[in-house]
Amino acid sequence: MSFVPAPRVADVYESHDRERLRLRSAASPCMNPILSAEAAVAQTALLLENLTREHEENLDRLNRARTLLGLDAVPQPISAPEPAPATPPSSTQPKTTLPPRQANMHPTYTDHAGRITSRARLTTLTKTTGFFRTATGETWRWVASATYVDLLEELFAGAPVVATLFDRGDGFVVIQAVRPASRVDWDTDEFDFNEHAGLGQATVTHRQGMKKILAKQNGLVCASCDRNLGKHAQAAIAAEPLKPTVLMCRPCKEDWRDAQAARPLKAVA
Predict the structure, then answer these.
(1) Is there a smaller number of Cβ atoms within 10 Å at the N or the C end of the chain?
(2) Quick one: pLDDT at residue 138?
(3) What is the pLDDT of residue 133?
(4) What are the residues whose beta carbons fall under 8 Å from the beta carbon of 167, sequence distance 6 or more?
């Protein structure tokens, strides 16, 4: 019987590769703490990146508003603030019960009914996050394409939906698609079923086409802050009755959305 040595620690730190660590863990249980810590770091890094970018964009908005009024801009902080002391994990932390994705395997998407109870403010980042409450009462953290969330904004505002997703194994589920729940499962009068029933992939395709048309007509720039959007994926559509539809950057559209908060979201014709 031959002795199989555990992988050297130096090899692990030289690789810096998640999939390689997963493969090594099958042969050596001592890799499990590293895998767990790596998943936690990936999760907090995503949250920190989103919050940092959101803070920078909010500061830019504040400085633009102050400049228009002839006030001095708020200076950027020279150094990052001291991190807050760590808090022990809560026993009520949302967890998923989906089977996690295994290394070297394609994800298995499954459909789950529920509601998207919250989403982060959209920024120029390609991803955004939020919380999804299933019909059985579980709460999961999700991540999805910011472009997709913007194109189907009505379904990410709390209406009954069916989400196609998978658990990526680091505390988040990845939402690939959402569609409105059927009339039988539409258990609320807060959202008009008739206004949501037709939303789906056809809506995404139609609104993507609208962005290209508007960009060709008026240029790929934000109608609010004149920022060059660079590519169609960074553009968002802002439409309201009796006014022309325009393109905006996502942060400016969020400001515009806040101003329209008194009215329910309407599907773009």
Answers:
(1) N
(2) 92
(3) 94
(4) 96, 98, 99, 100, 101, 173, 174
